[in-house]
Amino acid sequence: MIICIAGKNNIAVDSLNFLLSFIKKEKLCVLLNKTDNFQNNWQKSLGYFAKKNKIKICNLEELYLIHDLIFFSLEYDRIIKVEKFKSNQLFNLHFSLLPEFKGMYTSVLPILKNKTQSGVTLHKIDIGIDTGAILFQQKIDISLNDSAKDLYNKYIQFGTKLFIENVDKILINNYNAVEQTHMNSSYYSKSYIDFLNIEIDFNKTAHQIYNSLRGFTFREYQLPFYNESKIYKSEILSEKSFTKPNTLIFEDDECFIISTIDYNIKLFKDYYDIFWKYCEEGDVEGVKSVLNYIPNINTKNKKGWNAIIIAVYNNHLNLVKYLINLGANILATNYKGTNLLMYARSAGKYTKDYSMFKFLYSKEIDIEWRDDNNLSVLDYAIKDKQDLLINIINVND
Ligand code: TYD
After folding, report:
1. Cα 319 to the chain's mean position, in Å?
2. Whose Cα sits closest to atom 1 in ligand 1?
3. For the chain, which terminal residue's Cβ has fewer other Cβ atoms within 10 angstroms, N or C?
4. Which one of 190, 217, 234 terminates a domain?
């Protein structure tokens, strides 16, 4: 028996890690998505994990030929042709409550369509798109304030759990597979949403607008806009609208209030881009001026940088001290495991000013910490011949 995990993100990595706890790695292999660049980002990379754990990386042609293959698609990005496989043990974990929402964008569409439930479904792969018989399924509640990102996180969490709790039954062929019905079955293709041109229709009820906004709220991909401002959340007010829908009734630094078909709605402006820019420039006063509009100073951008990482990397010691007083996490790392001491090392590389490094070194940050390349800050300092810094570390050891 050979088990293949095909796909991406934490669900693929954590499921494979679970299999590794009781199956020899020679019996495991992976099939990677086109987007896998062997680097962890806001989700873990299956390629990075497979390489690190010396698990074979296969291509589809190799997999077609394996008779005793058990194939799991966990966010795999291509539609596979079952007839090409010698094995018929082919399974997919789809992020929806099948038969509803076959196809794409299942973190967005149930919210846009005002659903209060979704689910994760483990099913057999047949010739259609997400049409195979269902083995295991778990319902998920969608809260009224869930964004697309929140729903995606729930899919990852519940989907991984569904896999881990049931994979043993699949491996010994002990399950019922129930065909899907046509009732409530729906499908959406890639062209259904153009994320580069998201248009929110404000000529709608407050509730419809609220759903459109949270449905497109996924910071790693995009936030919705009103006028020229990014919006990170909204709130339906108790006042009824008396003016034409989509009239701007009020604006200040924090928000817009606009009228709709029924109730006024408050749209909160997103300040992270400005906040992070002030951190890059070391502008403490600027940071102070937007703090009220920053829900969490430890939020990371797409690259995994947050306020304190940006401030350390740009060598702004006063700002770093200020952020720490506000509760910034000194154990912050980016998605590749680069910690604050490593950023301070980079910052001091050309300036030869190691006051940032000395300051952080006096805090409780592990000097032995290793990043995804399995290198410590001392390893990097030795590589770059940073004698001053090597000295600081050795003297303090
Ligand atoms: P993805 O991993 O491409 O999977 P799928 O579309 O099959 O669900 O995307 C995950 C979620 O991210 C998806 O449900 C919708 C959302 N998303 C955006 O909000 N903006 C985008 O540009 C993309 C590509 C996805």
Report:
1. 28
2. 105
3. C
4. 190
